Amino acid sequence: MTDKEKQKDKKEIGDNKSEHDGIKNGNSPVTIDHISKDETILDAKIEDEMQSAYINYAMSVIVARALPSVEDGLKPVQRRILHAMNEMGLASNKSTKKSARIVGEVLGKFHPHGDTAVYDAMVRMAQEFSLRYPLVTGQGNFGSIDGDPPAAMRYTEAKLSSLSEELLLDIDKKTVKMLPNFDNSLTEPETLPAKVPNLLINGCQGIAVGMMTSIPPHNLNEVCDATIAYLKNPEIDIEKLMEFVLGPDLPTYGAIQKDGLKDIYMTGRGGFMMRGKINTEEEKDREKIIITELPYQVNKAELIKKIAALVQEKRLDDISDIRDESAKDKMRIVIFLKRGANTKLIINKLYHLTNLQCKFNAIMLALVNGQPRILNLKQFIENYVKYRKEIIRKRTQFDLKNAQDHEHILEGLMICLKNLDDIIALIKKAKGTTEATEQLMAKFKLSQKQAQAILEMKLQKLTVLEQDKLKKDFEEVKKKIKELEELLASEQAILDIIKQDLQELKRKYGDDRRTRIIERVSQVNEIDLIKKEDVAVMMTSKGYIKRMPLSKYQEQHRGGKGVTGSDLTTGDFMQSVFVCSTHDYILFLTERGRMYLIKAYNIPEADRYAKGKPIVNILNVNEKIKSTIPLKEFKDQLFIVTEKGVAKSLDLTTFAKIRQSGIKVISLPNDDFVVKAKIINQKSEAIIATKEGTAIRFPVNEVRVMGNNAYGVTVINLEKEDKVIGVEVFDSALLEKAEKENQQDLTILTITERGFGKRTVVQDYRRTHRGGKGVTNMNCSDRNGKVSGIQVVTRDDGLIITTAKGMVIRVPITDIREMGRNTQGVRIIKISEQDSVTDVVKIQYVE
Question: Dihedral angle at the C-alpha atoms of 523, 526, 529, 533, nearest 10 degrees?
Fold first, then answer.
């Protein structure tokens, strides 16, 4: 670059900078000086110009691209395709032509846009899974429900379907307005005559600028019946119309929920749930899930990929294989299940986690007189009837004019027959056609057309038979003219024709409804997606929690070493273990008396060696958890006991809905803490055990129901260094029954820090009143150590015993011998000198 060129560039940059600065400073808009003398540049604010240009663009997209006309239910590109195919003579009873030839015709004459857009639009009109009643008959690969693309347009062929011919019927009778095409060389129809209520039966979807349309397809029979009902009674309300139009009828069958349909038909907006169809089949000792129908617009291949991905992610269990066994006219996706799989749970997950259940959001938007409007069901039918009345009127006017023209010619021919000899003589004498025409017009008072018709008449018309036929034709034309004039004069006659047309459409194209309508698609709640199984929930002293299937623990006899139930870090130990179902609620009670509520499945599942997840990641808690209570429903009462021997009862029904931050259920002094809480009723009795080996038994109805802010009443009188370590309750009715039958099945299990324990019958603990000192429960020798926990058990129960080092043993109750209260017990679990028993849990299933 030369120095002169560099200086010129710098000058231009400086000029441009000053111009931009002027715009920033709000000065007048910049004009360009380097223009031709013959051109004029008008100053304009860019925001005004952008607004005007964008509005023009938006209206172009709305009116000329994306939205359908309410009259024929077609977008411009669809209308142009059908019109071009009609002009090419591609009738349903004729041979197909190459798609490339059709696309070229549309592009060259009517639609100057991309060939892909035209071909894609034509392909969709040929797809049976896209349109309820296809408008194009395709030959070759036109895509599939798997999302496979169609073959290139040079390979496929197409023609009009018989139904689309009904849309085009009478277009040659000046029934629709013809507009100039893009280069004013041809004309194209503004709308098609549309004998078929296409917008409702095939629906439409499109995105314009600032608006969109989403109209679901419907059944032809139902729409025709509703329209006939409207013709009989134009005052019919929408609810009555809905007795005929039951709901959308989708090409891919499936089922839809009735809820939401009324909103769509009343307001033009709404949504409804769609569901695929699932069956099950037995194969030897396992089941198969068979998917035979899909929701509308769901891609089958993508659905299968999604299911496979869910299996890999372990969000769908017990699936061994997935196969697509679909044929051309049959949908069949087979999901093979493992032995013992919960079929109902897997089906619920399929509905919830995949597009086998999804929502169709409807916006019934269409162009009415060139303006976008949201229409209700009745307005769709009103507009269709109004348009068809106009079409029939124009068609009748066209037929009437042709009949009148024909009558006029026949009148001339009849005059000819009456004056045949004179006319023949006149023609013979005439020097030419012009002279003959003029003389015929002058002598017999004929019009030029009549005279011309006489001159063109063949001699065969002069035979007697032809003369009789001519007279008959003349009478028939006069009769036809009278009928057409009466039709134009009668609104009811036009409505009767619309009714006849609809009945004819039903006979020719009507079919049974494909989509089932169900009152309600059963809502898949979160719990429906969780496998119901018994689990052991473990929580450590440092607040790590997990759940494991109970089946992973094998029962051992007493004295066994157990299996590792958790891989604990130094200083952490297993604080509690409880058994419940994944579908149960769990109440957590903290040491300071705050209660939280979650479902058991919200606790993460982990293997034996994992320590679990911090409880603070699950609950909004900053206090130590002291008690966990599994339950299925909220009834009876909650019994809370503290370390200082204070207890209170609460009405459990008030805790069915607890906020995420928890709720305070007991007011504690700073030096007292919650030990445990239990579910009780008015027939319950409690046994409270202390660390130093004493216990007290009393009826819980001696502790009245209190409010959340109460502290409670004293239930055991403790020694100075002692504290409560365990609380158990049992139903006194069970004990009375056992005593009557001379059975002693209900026992108190006590276990010490060193792994020794015993069972003592409940009757050995004297029933007294709350507030006493209690009786001896366990001999806390050096061998035994202090008491770690107690449980009320029967012979059918099992135990899970945990230690501070994370060892776990599952022991059947029958392996532990019954002994008296003041005994040392037997070894239940072998532990090292550095380890100690922290908890004992009865394996009991929540009913």
Answer: -130
Domains in the chain with CATH codes: 3-43 (no CATH), 74-193 (3.90.199.10), 277-355 (3.30.1360.40), 412-509 (1.10.268.10), 532-843 (2.120.10.90)
The DSSP secondary structure of 341-367, one letter per residue, reads: --HHHHHHHHHHHSTTEEEEEEE-EEE
- pLDDT for 163 equals 97
**Per-residue pLDDT tens over the stretch 346-394:** 998 999 999 999 999 999 999 999 899 999 999 999 999 999 999 999 9
Strand order in the sheet with 646-651: 674-680, 637-642, 646-651, 713-714
Q: What is the three-class DSSP state of 56?
A: helix
Q: What's the token pair of residue 20? A: 């931009």
Please state, as a whole number, how many other Cβ atoms lie within 10 Å of the Cβ of residue 834: 7
Longest dimension (CA), the chain: 153
Residues belonging to the active site: 155
Which run of H or E residues covers position 579?
strand 574-581
**Percentage of residues of the chain with pLDDT beyond 70:** 90
Comparing 596-605, 800-809, 831-840, the range with the smallest average pLDDT is 800-809
DSSP class of residue 28 equals P
Give the CA-trace dihedral at 762, 763, 766, 767, to 10 degrees: 80
Note the pLDDT tens digit of each residue in 275-334. Answer: 999 999 988 878 999 999 999 999 999 999 999 999 999 888 889 999 999 988 899 999
**In terms of Cα–Cα distance, which of 782, 837, 829, 773 is closest to 805?**
837
Cα–chain center distance at 312: 23
Beta strands (DSSP E) in 681-723 are 684-690, 694-699, 713-714
Residue 657 DSSP one-character state: S
Query: Taking CA 656 as the corner, what is the angle to CA 655 and CA 662, rounded to the nearest 5 degrees?
Result: 50
How many other C-beta atoms lie within 10 A of the C-beta of residue 94?
Answer: 11
Cα 452 to Cα 401, 428, 440, 446, 547: the distances in Å are 19, 15, 9, 10, 102
Q: What is the DSSP string of 140-158?
A: S----TT-PPPPPTTT-EE
DSSP class of 705: B
φ/ψ of residue 714, rounded to 5 = -75, 130
Q: Concatenated DSSP letters for 199-256?
A: HHHH-EEEE-SS-EEEE----HHHHHHHHHHHHH-TT--HHHHTTT--S---TT--EE
CA dist 679 and 792 (Å) reads 14
Residue 97 DSSP SS3: strand
